[in-house]
Amino acid sequence: MDYINAFWVGGLICALTQILMEKTKMLPGRIMVLLVCTGAVLGAIGIYEPFTEFAGAGASVPLLGFGNVLWKGVKEAVENEGFIGIFMGGFKASAVGISAALVFGYLASLVFEPKMKS
Fold it and tell me: Does 115 score more than 80 pLDDT?
């Protein structure tokens, strides 16, 4: 049942995002920022954690999950470091994911032949 919940929740998030892209004039970058901020806000008000427990990777993998990770990192760093934690918490919490994306992107560019858009 965990796989089914992850599949339909992740699919619903992607479908809603696609509808937003098709029906509005928002640029993809702004929609991505909206998703990250929505994940952070849902984490701040305490909704995202039960949502993640229900949906698993369907909720934690999309950009909503990245916003929640940033929120958790900032919250923890503020508790431990004080005001300066606002600036460093998100970087510490998301460093592994961002680094992995860079490394795997580079490895993929070595395996496949990247082409520049013309």
Answer: no
